[in-house]
Design a protein that fits this description.
Layout (H helix, E strand, L loop, with lengths): L1 E5 L2 E5 L3 E5 L2 E6 L2 H10 L6 E6 L2 E6 L11 H6 L7
Antiparallel strand pairs: 1-2, 3-4, 3-5, 5-6
Length: 85
Amino acid sequence: MFAGLFDQHVIYASHPFIVLEGEDVSGSFSTFDAAEDFIAKKASYSAFILRHDDQKWVIAKDRVINPLFGPDRWGYIHGKPSDRH
């Protein structure tokens, strides 16, 4: 069990990574990659990942940018990889 503070709120979770959407915890994950996959497949793009760090939760990664609003949206929409690097 992981417990810690985030912005004056005590959050309990079964895993060291959580996805936060607004004020709600959407899921708890054992790996950062699993949390990212969850956001990409099921969560909204307003979600972000927190990781447990001793007695607190810290932002592990800021919000994910919706690919439909990014510079590579045409390739995303049509399923073509981007030529950018």
